[in-house]
Amino acid sequence: MTHGTALITGASSGIGAMYAERLARRGHDLVLVARDFDRLKSLANRLSGDHGVVVTPLTADLTSAADLERVVVKLRDDAEISLLVNCAGIGPNGPLLGS
Ligand SMILES: NC(=O)c1ccc[n+]([C@@H]2O[C@H](COP(=O)([O-])OP(=O)(O)OC[C@H]3O[C@@H](n4cnc5c(N)ncnc54)[C@H](OP(=O)(O)O)[C@@H]3O)[C@@H](O)[C@H]2O)c1
User: Fold this and answer.
1) pLDDT tens digits, residue range 27-43?
2) Under CATH, which architecture does the 5-86 domain have?
């Protein structure tokens, strides 16, 4: 049984990093998306060393249309990707009704 590759946005901290850890532990190869390359690279090295999976950092600022398009192309064209975990996002910056 193959697990396929999981693409995780917001993978370098918080909820996304936890998904990355758990999915690597289950044997998924990973594509990790966030803005800061050094943080992504350091997590990728640790997860591939600990779990023996292939981890690819993909730097992208998802507020940039050009960067977002690179992620969309990756999702569309990489047939190994079987799972998307979309953790990068924004929370409300004011009362719910107003925002
Ligand atoms: N923590 C909670 O209890 C909780 C509860 C409900 C909802 N949420 C929502 O869940 C999401 C993640 O929360 P979290 O606590 O895990 O946040 P976090 O620890 O701040 O992690 C955010 C992740 O997203 C990346 N990121 C931020 N802006 C980005 C951008 N423009 N393009 C690409 N990547 C970006 C960050 O890396 P870089 O800075 O390197 O880009 C980081 O990897 C947020 O939308 C939050 O509002 C969180």
Assistant:
1) 999 999 999 999 999 99
2) 3-Layer(aba) Sandwich (3.40)
